[in-house]
Amino acid sequence: MEHWDPSVMFRTVDIAAVAANGLLGGAVARAFRFDIVGFVMLAIVSGMGGGMIRDVLLNSGFPVALTDAGYWVGVLAAAAVAYTIDLGSRWADRLLIVLDFVGMGAWTATGTLKALGLGLHWLPAVALGVTTAVGGGAIRDIMVNRIPAVFGGNSLYATIAVIGGAEMVVFQELLHRPNVGMGVAIVTCGVLGILSRWRNWRLPAPVDLTVPRPKLRLGRRRIRRGPLKEQGWTPGEPLTRNLETVTPEQIRRHRRRRRRRVRDRA
Fold first, then answer.
1. Which domain holds residue 183?
2. DSSP character for 151?
3. What is the band of 205 on the pLDDT scale with cuts at 50, 70, 90?
4. CB 158, CB 136: distance < 8 Å
5. Are 102 and 186 in contact (CB under 8 A)?
């Protein structure tokens, strides 16, 4: 029996992820009723954009997307399929979700491993791994004038890539088993990604803090029997909102009262 080479499986998953993200780009192009050029462009950006960003930042030679013919075969085939077939059915959507998250694990692990191999600290290495996984989708959304989905408002995505990158760091730097780390990242991202879509797991929403606001008053202070109504300032609102406006006539009356009190005391 010949020795099994895990790199063959990883490359298969990698090309499948490129094709799956190319299909996602093609689905966006179909939603906007683009022509074949739009399908090809969005498929290329979705499938290979993150890896291009990573390789340009690492400055390690030509981006792999420009030198690996398998990537181009994957994205062009994906563009042709998306242009021909409507992928809006339930089974197609589920298949794309599985391929997307499994490929995310492969891309995150590959990007993290490449950054570690060039001597980067583990934290920027994980960041580059996440960029490899989500960069293409972010560029695709910007090209069609949409807020990138990775910014939030939906189920977990980039968070899962962070977990996969952290696992790759542990297996590479501490255990020195990169192939095992690659496999673990693929399985983890695939399982967590599918569960997050199924259970709609999300990160917590922003917290609304209120900062107490002082109230400007002139003249004699009145004593109130009841408790004062609590007021505050919410970030984003004008600081002068609901403040009393002091007119020049009020200032003159206040000064006259003060002069009168001084004369009475004298």
1. 4-197
2. G
3. confident
4. no
5. yes
Residue 70 CB-density burial (10 A; 0-12 exposed, 13-18 middle, 19+ buried): middle
Cα pseudo-dihedral 43, 44, 45, 49, rounded to 10: 130
Total structural domains within the chain? 1
Contact 22, 44 (CB under 8 A): yes
- For the chain, the farthest-separated pair of C-alpha atoms sits apart, in whole angstroms, at 113
Alpha-carbon distance of 45 to 136, in angstroms, equals 5
Q: Which residues have a Cβ under 8 Å from the Cβ of 136 and sit 6 or more positions away?
A: 21, 25, 45, 46, 47, 48, 49, 50, 51
pTM for this entry: 0.74
Q: What pLDDT score does 55 carry?
A: 92
Q: Is 246 within the bounds of a domain? A: no
Query: Is position 181 within any domain?
Result: yes
Examine residue 231 and state whether it is found in any structural domain, yes or no.
no
| Mean pLDDT value of segment 216-228 | 55
- Which pLDDT score, from 0 to 100, does residue 5 have? 66
Q: How far is CA 67 from CA 9, 25, 130, 220, in A?
A: 20, 21, 22, 80
Buried b (16+ CB within 10 A) or exposed e, 137-149: bbbbbebeeeebb
> Tokens 């692990």 identify what position?
109
pLDDT digits (tens, 9 = 90+) for 85-104: 987 788 888 888 888 898 88
Q: Judging by beta carbons within 10 Å of its beta carbon (0-12, 13-18, 19+), is residue 161 exposed, middle or buried?
A: buried
Q: Is 171 helix (H, G, I), strand (E, B) or coil?
A: helix
Q: Tokens in use for 257?
A: 């009262």
